[in-house]
Write a structure and sequence with these properties.
The structure is a homodimer. With about 450 residues, chain A is of the alpha+beta class. The first copy, chain A, has two domains: about 5-160, Creatinase/prolidase N-terminal domain (Creatine Amidinohydrolase, Chain A, domain 1, 3-Layer(aba) Sandwich), CATH 3.40.350; about 165-455, Alpha-Beta Complex (Creatine Amidinohydrolase). The first copy, chain A, is built from 16 helices and 17 strands. In chain A, a hairpin with a 4-residue loop joins strand 4 (about 60-65) and strand 5.
């Protein structure tokens, strides 16, 4: 945990932006795998973590704006918990670590909410994203008193959590230190004959040996054309491209989110090099635009144009680049967004609703295929942390679908695509801090040029 | 997956024992960590897995006893799923792997249930253990039609899943092969100066590199007196005992469940040896009783007596052993049960209710401290797989609680206990198949005698 003052200040800052009522943060419970006592490793809700910092299940926090009070609801461990889970410190002491003086028993939490609702007070809650939270909403709602999500709280939390504090940026760098070792391990491990799960094991081991875990289930596959492929059962063969999109999480639950691509066998083919350079150029030239005030949608579209130009040189696209990108032809190859906010969540605050977090009244989400998947479109601000992650993929089913309709055929050399059906995909991703002047790539450098990656793969 | 015939036979066997109606198996959904799209690694419900074998979220299966039909409810992937999650095979084909011909869309599942309820048919459902299942019960229940858990189905499923088939025993052996490597890794890794998470990393790596994962969050700690300690933050020092209670899971989701204790620094002290031998003797002599027909409660109590005898020799207990165990004095040191069923769940079928699975009308759960935690008390049957896992622990808070009341002081040398307050705990666990004649310890041997463990720790 950070110092109690960090959490106190955050709560104070939040309270000062809300019009009144109570802001309610239900912490997470354990998530059962196959029965209640066999739970997944506990993950606290990120907003609870941000304002209260305590990584224990079955807690809730309330900030009473009108009264100026702050309360945690939870129970002290009894002998059963001491025998089975361990004594550790009292919950009262742990609350002190979060700068909270008032601890009330769990069963008074719902009563407090009901009382506030009945008293006609504003009850601010964030959107539920786990069934346990939905159950809370259901339990508290009846015909007379409907509990609804508070857009005022969503906007206030999103505004606050988007701007990273110094101690958060430090955590982000720490996470990237672990993440760097994960990627070096993958580059070193990816050898013909191994299975993806063996590379994944080496990657996960770096996070575990650093005392943490993965911030999200890593993508570690030679079938990179599937954007979110989470199976690890393919065997690596020489000439494959192994894509690793993974990040290590710190004890405070900040995560890295880095993607690199390793040639299985140690060297890229000429064909692979050509596409790789296009993605790298797209990433670098679009990243160079990052500074406060620029819409991230523009950064995304710039990457799309740079890569469309490259794909024209490679003989895969044709026609006017601006027109191609305006009509979304590049999305056949680059069907996802350039990046998203990063922090306590790998897609930071996605649970609050992407349209609140990544868009605003000035820049609304587009409905065009590809651009619609851009998670962050609005103007950047200083001290936001974002990912920069363009990619080029050859997705046979998507190619077939478009080609059957001759979709955007003015911009795509469909006849050339046959040679690329088994190419897979390439994505390159870094984590970027928006600074007052521009940007800074976070973390120590991780091999990314072709020669750097080939060197790392052969050590 | 096993062959389609395996699943067909299992469903047929189940249907033949039910009086009528429909047996409903809602599969699991993804479990969100910090937002819906960032989910924990998917774990299918074990009963769904047993009867339908498919490891995908958002499915449900219905066996219609009256009509003799079998249906899976789920949706084929669209282009969005192909781009993001991968194409793979059609769901229709996958259903074929489970011997199921009828696939219906997901949204007809609740309608089918409602129709059956309204038609006055018996709707058999197992107890919900995830909020998503509770939500299903809630959605289907109203004042007129209350959906309830089917005790008939619980008993039928428990009876069937308890008796392991040949292919299940083979999976169990496979799981123990991975588990063995995990324990050898821990013995080899546990060195003074390392942190528990570094040992845990080496353990987890063995499961991951074999293409699997842990069947349950491993206990890997030098604070073994906390029975279910899941934090890994202590530093190992010479003289500590590192307890590893862990198991690898196969692709079919059978898990090993083995506990071993390694002396940090490579050799046990004389004091540690004495307690270790008592636990080992308790395990061996009680295990020797295992055969069809013996109540597992008797096996548990025999282990308690053997260990109470040993604790008497060590000067920690006193008085008549039978009386001591009858009054539960041993539970100060051995507060948990001797073992449980093992299979698709590490506590097999715990979600169905331990009292249905581990007890019956002949042998009911005891309320005495310690014995109350015994998960399996009933008479054993051929082809059950059980764990044998006695332990001795020195839990300072529990000692203080008992000593303050002078509880069972006729049997406990409280004055001697002071020397043991920082001892920690020792548990030794194997997985046992009940055979027609007696029992067989499953898996290749894992070092367990003092000399074997010391040898493994020094390699």
């Amino acid at each position: 945990m950070f110092s109690p003052e960090v959490y106190r200040q955050r709560r104070k800052a939040l309270a000062s932006t809300l019009s009144g009522g109570i802001a309610v943060f239900p912490g997470n419970r354990e998530s059962p795998m196959n029965y209640p006592a066999n739970a997944y490793p506990f993950r606290q809700d990120s907003s609870f973590l941000y304002y209260f910092g305590i990584q224990q299940p079955d807690l809730a926090g309330i900030i009473d704006i009108d009264e100026g009070t702050e309360t945690i609801f939870g129970n002290e461990p009894g002998m059963h918990e001491i025998i089975w889970i361990g004594s550790g410190r009292s919950l009262k002491e742990t609350c002190g670590d979060a700068g909270i003086d008032t601890l009330k028993p769990s069963d008074s939490f719902q009563e407090t909410l009901k009382g506030s609702l009945k008293g006609g007070r504003k009850v601010h809650l964030l959107p539920p994203y786990r069934e346990e939270h939905r159950a809370l909403f259901a339990a508290l709602s009846d015909a007379a008193l409907e509990l609804t999500v508070s857009q005022e709280l969503i906007r206030a939390v999103a505004a606050q959590r988007s701007v990273k504090q110094a101690e958060e940026i430090e955590e982000q760098e720490k996470a990237l230190g672990i993440t760097r070792h994960m990627h070096l391990a993958a580059m070193k491990t990816a050898r013909p004959g191994l299975f993806e799960y063996e590379v994944f094991a080496a990657v996960q081991n770096e996070a575990a040996a650093a005392g943490g875990r993965l911030g999200f289930p890593a993508i570690c596959t030679v079938k990179g054309q599937t954007l979110h492929n989470l199976s690890y059962n393919n065997q690596l063969k020489a000439g494959d491209l192994l894509i690793l999109d993974g990040g290590g999480e710190t004890a405070e639950r900040y995560t890295g989110d880095i993607t690199r691509v390793t040639p299985v066998g140690g060297t890229f083919s000429e064909k692979q090099k050509e596409i790789y350079q296009i993605v790298l150029k797209g990433k670098e030239e679009a990243t160079a635009l990052i500074k406060p005030g620029i819409p991230y949608r523009d950064v995304h579209l710039h990457a799309a144009k740079v890569m469309a130009e490259g794909l024209k040189s490679a003989g895969l696209m044709k026609g006017n680049t601006d027109d191609a990108v305006e009509q979304g032809a590049h999305a056949l190859f680059f069907p996802h967004g350039f990046g998203h906010l990063l922090g306590l969540d790998v897609h930071d605050m996605e649970s609050l609703g992407e349209d609140f977090v990544g868009y605003d009244t000035e820049i609304e989400r587009d409905s065009q295929f590809g651009l619609a998947y851009l998670r962050l479109g609005r103007r950047l601000k200083e001290n936001w942390v974002v990912t920069a992650e363009p990619g080029i993929y050859f997705i046979p089913e998507l190619i077939d679908q478009w080609q059957a309709k001759n979709h955007l055929a003015d911009f795509i050399h469909y006849e050339k695509l046959d040679e690329y059906r088994s190419f897979g995909g390439i994505r390159l991703e870094d984590n970027i801090l928006v600074t007052a002047e521009g940007y800074r790539v976070l973390g120590e450098p991780i091999p990314i040029t072709i020669s750097e990656v080939e060197a790392a793969a052969s050590t």
